[in-house]
């Protein structure tokens, strides 16, 4: 077979979303593994494919909600979990992205993989309509599976562990396969010499127990409170990573938390230096810690997917969930030097016991099959789509907040009222009545 024909027959598309770093991180590692197996991989960001540039508004609105009104996100998350799906505004917004996504996919792609719930919804709809003729897989990046992760039309859901697999099946997924987590290979256990070198590289104390506190790429949650509690309980010295929130890192240093960093490029090295990880969201960083042989504690989680992931990780036996601040010192002490820490390390590393031939990338390769290019929409459909997009864009500009996109959550609450509030910096006095009124209908 000629080289160009061989390349065309081994092509995979990955659709993620630049919300935080977890969805993109999983997509990046899947891309690396598939490329190593000889596939050409195309990466797409769903937020870039939303109409009228609404992706940035969705991302910024979600970020602002987490920072200024986390209780609102908790309510949205719980409401859509009970409802088992998204509201009409979010569905309209995702429908408006279908043609853009279809045009973005290379006609030679033999499989499409989503690492983001909204993308799964779009791809599943295209598959159900017969407009996408090749298999679609969803890689579940979270240990807790919100119902929005499970989209009709998706052929296969890939899970890291039996706990999220069971949750996906309970949410209606028919073909769920446990294929382990995906993390950068730099996250691996280290020996004492590597540990000493890592501490020296970051200027950390040579012998003190270190608790690595992470708060995602945005540095959200009660990070200052937790850092002070870690310092004051005395079980371990806090080392805090604030992501892109440089202002938070400066505040912590002012608080006397000396080892506070913004964005860190060498997270594997920092994990090698630490004795325990304290996290609040249960995303990709937790999986990286398991791969590095680092015990993990969930504490003072951010709302929504934070407690849900903490509960699932605790159920799986790979991370302990500290619910009571009075337990912080004792649990951290056991994780750093006791049998609990040894059990946690073993359980975390066991997630990665499968061979590459059994992993998610290998499963995607097995699903892959070249198909004919998707048919373009007819002229009449294009005219209808233009009209619909104009209407949807106008509505979504007021309701885009509803895609609480950390886990793809969308809602049925009063979108225009909340979007006006978000546009004014989340004035809580205006926000609360809107939710109070909607609470009677939830």
Automatic annotation (TrEMBL):
Keywords recorded for this protein, A-Z: Glycosyltransferase, Membrane, Transferase, Transmembrane, Transmembrane helix
Alphabetized SUPFAM superfamilies for the sequence: UDP-Glycosyltransferase/glycogen phosphorylase (SSF53756)
Matches recorded under Pfam families: Glyco_trans_1_4, MGDG_synth
Keyword set includes ATP-binding: no
Keyword Ligase part of the UniProt annotation: no
Listed InterPro entries: Diacylglyc_glucosyltr_N, Glycosyltransf_28_UgtP
Entry GO MF terms: hexosyltransferase activity
GO cellular component terms attached to this protein's record: membrane
Gene Ontology BP term (one): glycolipid biosynthetic process
UniProt-recorded name of the protein: UDP-N-acetylglucosamine--N-acetylglucosamine transferase
Family under the similarity heading: Belongs to the glycosyltransferase 28 family.
Membrane-crossing segments per the record: 390-413
Domain of life according to the entry: Bacteria
Ranges where the Diacylglycerol glucosyltransferase N-terminal domain occurs: 23-178
